[in-house]
Automatic annotation (TrEMBL):
InterPro entries: BTB/POZ_dom, SKP1/BTB/POZ_sf. Residues 169-236 form the BTB domain. Pfam families: BTB (PF00651). It comes from Panagrolaimus davidi. This is BTB domain-containing protein. It comes from the Eukaryota. Coiled coil: none annotated.
Length: 330
């Protein structure tokens, strides 16, 4: 355990009594397949940033009702949970020992147990609801296994700080009847092509407006976000990657060009390799081109059918042909 972890208790107790009114449950029952009934959110007493709550949902496959313990991580990476959840009136009890919850997402982790069949929950003979209420009890411990996270102390870059400063953005892209504003120095620092245009003395430079007709406003906005060092990885997808690759090639934005190539290389598959190979030629994407050639080389000498191969640029097919023969080097 590292030094920051040693500053806190390694283990803490958790517990709650959750009372659910029968009439409230009846109203919610019809939507339990997609909307859970959720308890209050409680904080772990001595493990920083760890919250927990219970919720009920329904399994559409077998019509069961489930009781879930949800652990939400804010500052820790991994905890071990040992707990008991019970409905004493119905003689229901589940004991969970050493359930490891590892933070792999930003949403937390879930421990699910079947509570009962859906038809049982409101049947008086099963005694889940007594005198109009169901009382669910949780008792247990949470143990810190590893990882207290500290927020990064690195200051934002100047570009990131300026991103929201709309008042001083002095250049505008005109695209699809929309204006996308940007600071001139941020723009010119990222693209030598735009830098030359802004220093040309032409109409665009004087009016500080750049009209874009061959790319969509989505692509221009992604580019501007990139200029301000925004994280655009979730904005790049298979639908816009080709256009973004062409944009970054045309305006000589090399890091963005590389980012899109990396994205497309990760998506490389038999059904799209011919399309990506051609795209690599038209967008000067040398790394993507090399990956496409190597991918296609796997099928040389096989009776394989590659959809669209007849449309592949001759530069690609010639390279494949050259690689089929041994070469000598003096």
């Amino acid at each position: 355990m590292n030094s920051i972890e040693s500053k806190f208790a390694k283990e803490c107790s958790i517990g709650m009594k959750w009372r659910i009114k029968e009439e409230v449950f009846r109203e919610a029952l019809a939507t339990l397949n997609h909307e859970a009934i959720v308890s209050s959110v409680l904080k772990a007493s001595s493990i920083p940033g760890l919250e927990y709550y219970l919720y009920l949902d329904s399994d559409a496959v077998d019509s069961s009702l489930n009781i879930n313990l949800y652990l939400e991580f804010k500052m820790v990476k991994k905890v071990k949970a040992t707990f008991t959840v019970s409905v004493k009136s119905a003689n229901y009890q589940r004991i969970i020992v050493n359930h490891i919850s590892d933070k792999t997402t930003d949403w937390g982790t879930i421990c699910k147990e079947v509570l009962c069949a859906r038809y049982q929950i409101l049947d008086p003979k099963f005694k889940f609801f007594v005198d109009g209420y169901m009382e669910i009890e949780l008792e247990g411990t949470l143990e810190l296994v590893s990882g207290i996270k500290k927020k990064p102390s690195r200051a934002l870059s100047l570009a990131q700080l300026l991103w929201k400063n709309d008042d001083e953005k002095d250049v505008a892209f005109v695209v699809e009847d929309q204006l996308v504003n940007v600071h001139k120095w941020v723009l010119t620092a990222n693209s030598p092509v735009f830098k030359a245009e802004m220093e040309s003395g032409m109409k665009e430079a004087q009016e500080k407006k750049i009209t874009v007709t061959d790319f969509s406003v989505e692509i221009v906005k992604i580019f501007v976000d990139y200029c301000y060092e925004r994280d655009i990885r979730n904005d790049v997808n298979e639908g816009n990657a080709s256009e973004l690759l062409h944009f970054s090639d045309k305006y000589d934005v090399e890091p963005l060009h590389n980012l899109v190539q990396n994205f497309l290389t990760d998506k490389l598959a038999e059904e799209n390799v011919c399309k990506l190979a051609n795209m690599s030629i038209t967008s000067n994407a040398k790394e993507l081109r090399e990956c496409c050639v190597c991918f296609l080389m796997k099928y040389v000498g096989q009776c394989a059918v590659i959809d669209g191969f007849s449309t592949v640029d001759k530069e690609i097919t010639s390279e494949i042909g050259r690689r089929c023969f041994l070469s000598f080097s003096d």
